[in-house]
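User: I'm curious what two different proteins look like when written out as structure tokens. Can you demonstrate?

Assistant: Sure. I'll show them one after the other, since each token string lines up with its own sequence. Here's the first protein:
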Amino acid sequence: MTIDGTRQLIQFAAVQRSAWRTFRPPTDGYAAVSVDRAGRMTLLTRQLTAGEVFFRPPTGVYWVDVSIHHNSCRFDLPAAEGVFTFTAEVDVTWRVVDPEKAVKDQPATGEQVYRPYLERQLRRLSCEYQVEHFAVAEREINDHLDKPIALDCGISLLSCLVKLSPETSTYTHLQEATFDHRKAQRREAEHGARMQTAYLQSSENESQHGLNLQTSHQSYELTKLTQQRSLELEQQRMSFYAEAIHRGDLSALTYRLASNRSDVNDVIGLMMQQKQVDFDAAHAMLKALLNQNLVNKRDVQDILAYASAAIADQVNPASVGAGSVAPPKPELVVSPMAALVQNAEVLDRSDDNDDDD
């Protein structure tokens, strides 16, 4: 194995007949190819026999370097765009595998053989990739050149490692474009996260709003039903009180008020209203009779006596049971009745005066 670029690949040496008797095949990275007077070549892998030396002695021998060589080379390769180029740094391992063919073709160096082949193959492969895809292109090219390749002049390409990169200005541009793209992706991701958060918050607000509306509606309906029920119960109680007052059933009225003490004021108002209705009716009838001179003071005395007895019954504590509510004050009823009697007396006096005239 050698990396000496100055070492000759093929050297010729003339050999006398007597020297062949002591000739031994080389083992130091060279191969010996003998040539006779007729130009026939033979790869020497053993010592010549006496008959071969006497009858057909070689006139000379070619020493062919068959060791493994390592070389590096550089290529400028076109990209798919046509205006950009790749820079390819290639590490090559090669050797002579056919000494006889190498002697026939007489290559000066191995680079004269493998370089044109590599440049042709690399240019053909690189133009299929855009400049920003140089990493993919490098992988594909190395996969294509990962096996030994037989070349001309008995040389074989054992291995080839390609390092591909864009030119400096293009590489800087690709870096900036990549950074900008990543920033855009990051902004888009942040925007998406904010939009998702806003959407979830909006959904939560809508759900909360709907729940509040439902709760408010249910509370309204419940309040409405409660008020309606309270009104119905109030109407039932007032109807019961009014009917009891109208019938004069004070015992039932007393028992009912014993369990509903808050209705006392309302019941007193109903009683006052009922008595006022009865008084108004009686007052209107008596006034009509007096206006028509159909009654006089003597007739009114009987009505006054009856009203006094009725008032006495209303205010008599013995007429109601235990726990009863006190009836309206007598003066609320007596005063209108007294006024009625006074009106009747005035009318009667006026009639007596007419009779005297």
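Here's a second, unrelated protein for contrast:
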Amino acid sequence: MHKPLLYQKISLIFLCLHLSFCVSASKKGLNPRLSQLPGYLGEFSVQDQKTHLVLIGLQNSSENMVPVIWDTGSDLSFLEGEGSPAPMAFGGKRFAMPFRKGILPDDFPGLLGNDFFLKTCVYWEDSSLLVFDSSSRFCAEPEAYIGIDFKRLLVQSQGGHFYASLESETQESCKGLVDTGASLSLLPETFFSSWDSLGKKQVFLPGKKVVQAEERKAKSRLLIPIKDSSPLQYLEVRYLTGISIEEIDFPREKGNNQVCVLGLDVLRQRPLFWDFTRRQIRIQESNKNGK
């Protein structure tokens, strides 16, 4: 049995452990009346593999399901391999999905990025990802239909990606790429004042380059500022550090252009609403354990 290895796709900001797909998870249904709302497009079954999320819902020309990674750190959807774009379908709509070779680890057949979700909003909770057309009333007022007290993150959008403000209790800050394709968050070495080291990890970069990164567990809280309320708080965040992170200029905040990654270890903890048209991300105030 091969040893799990971390893989960092810098060009598309994708992070996962090198594991095979498993497509036989149970499916938890959400409120069935949501599928009756105008603008409802369809539902993906979400299989949480701990290091990555697998979406089941795309069909190929033979009407077979094609599992793909959900990666909001990528602005491009594609299938691994070579050839002409493959005909696919979701929610009654048909489209062509391009191939790209040599980007994903072995056993990963494809990736679903932000281009797929243009002009939509999505609601993710546990094993269900509901997709709505941006014109749907659900996208404008999700709380009215699912009874969740969502909190709106302070988000900026640039280059097809979404960035949330992240802070530590010692007032360190960075712009976090909101990335469902990253198994762990990626933060500067000095972001937390105290932490436990979980050891060095092998991280794969494009071109089959392998580097070392340190995995840590924070002893203080990660703070995510939200609109008109106190920040969301996350305890014992596991993260990677020691990898160079790109810098992006944000027009309204020239003094703070350090970019980090907000990964799946944090994002999976609470139900999430994402409006790709209105450029909004909302997260439930309490986590799944009510904290």
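A detail about the second structure: Residues 1-28 have pLDDT under 50 and may be disordered.
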